[in-house]
Every structure is written in structure tokens, then in C-alpha cells.
Amino acid sequence: MSVALTKTDFHFPGQKAVYHGKVRDVYNIGDEQLIMVVTDRISAFDVILPKGIPFKGQVLNQIALTFLDATTDICPNWKTASPDPMVTAGIMCKGFPLEMIIRGYLCGSAWRTYKSGVREICGIRLPEGMRENEKFPHPIITPTTKGEIGTHDEDISKAEILAQGLATAEEYELLERYTQELFERGTEMAAKRGLILVDTKYEFGKHNGKIYLMDEIHTPDSSRYFYAEGYEDRFEKELPQKQLSKEFVREWLMDNGFQGKVGQKVPEMTDEIVHSISERYIELYEHITGEKFVREEQTDLLARIEKNVNNYLK
Hints:
single chain; alpha+beta; 8-stranded antiparallel β-sheet; 8 helices
């Protein structure tokens, strides 16, 4: 089996703090820049699963870099460099406590909610009679609060965001516009590769009074993709869509009795399951970028990352 990086504990020059997220370890360098290490950890239902997925961190980091570089004309983003295949360096921003989720199709958690009889999500009324995986007349924005590790993100409406002071009216208007335009660009880029960008999420923050796009963008951890070929036929026949996203991990967990609820146990992650998830991530990289994935040297991931980041910080 290939090696997976599931834990980091670096001490970089000028380091002031470190934040260990579900997947990313973010190092604060002098309160000015961040070093984001994208690990091979994998989470689902807001739970970090017990085994890492080889090459997942490299896949996520390199897809995110592709899209960050391709969207700088829409909005500024935090990235300044990528010193290692699993690392992005960038501007330190104060994040909005929100995830801006945008959906082009009714599926995933939105479908599960709709199927239960709910017809309003985040203050947005949904039409009656929709079917799973049906395209919305226009993409809808359904923000969530950004919870701490181990807590579930909660749906929130624009009215609640403004009432709670999580963003000003002017800021939120810009967040919505950036979200719509980024999704449009991602949709266009996916279409060129024979994919449909179904839904995704963006995170934003401020630096010196200016709003920046932060974190990852259009990766399989933050987005859902369908294959365009066969979409209409599968939809008409009410068959599951062929998709490239983390949803297949959630479905495997649900099939084995796990949805992140109290008392539920994560099913055993066999080497076969881990390998298949790794291959699915690599498949998405190659589909969405149109480039062959280069498996970087793995003998000592921690030493490689530390050396590359230290050289960058010099």
C-alpha cells in the first residue's frame, strides 16, 4: 500500500500557531501568511475517518491550484505559492464564519431534505414536483454556518446572516456575486472536460478590508461532479448518476450503517476500500484538469514537505 499523511506537527521559521482542520493543517507564519498542508485525511458526515487516502492531499491541492489560478479575474484569492505538491502558501485572512454553498441540481443532502417534505432551504422556496438530480431553473445559494470540528454545519438564510452580523449587507452582496461567478466559471471548465459541476462550496475572508477567496475550490471534497454523457438518460430512467465526488464515500458509509450519528461506528476501511477511494480521487484529477496525475515521491512525506516549505520561507 502507498503511504498516507494523516498527521503533521511542523515547527516552521516564524510560526505562531497551527490549526488542525478535518483535512488541512494550517500554519500561521508571523500573523502574515499561512502555510496550508493538505493531508490525506478524509472526512464524511463531519467525522474524520480512521484511515488516510494515499495521494488525496496532492490531488486536492493541485486541483485547487488549477482553479485558483483560473479565477483570479473574478475575485482575488489568498494563494501566493505552492512550495510542495501538498502545500499552498498564501495571505492570512480573517474568514467569514460561513460556507457559501451553491447548487445547480437537486441532490445529496438537499435531495434528502426535499424528499422528507421540506420545500424551503436557507430561505429559498423550492418548486413542487422536483426529482432527484434535476437541474434547478437557476443555481441556488444555500449557505451554512462554519462549525467547529465535530459539530455539524447548520443551514442559514441570508436574513439570518445579516441579523446575526456574520456579514454586512454590502459584504454579503459581494459574497453572493463572487459565488455565482465562480460557479459559472467552474461549470464552463467542467463542461469542456465532459463533466457537470453539480454543487460546490466557497469560503471567503478579509485582509486589509478586501474580500478574498480562501481555502480550496472545485475539488472533490468541496464539489460534486456528474459525467455529462448519459446524464439525461439516467435522469429520465431515475437511475443513479455516474459521478465524481466524495458522495460515493458517504454512500458506502450509509450502506454500512454510518451517518455520523451518536452511537454509530465507522465501518472497517479495508486496504481495498482505501485503494479504490484513492483511485477515484486520481480519476477526478485527470478528468477535471485534463492532465495525467504524477504520483510524487512518497518515501518520507513529512521530510519532503518540511524541506520544501523551509526553502520557500527562506
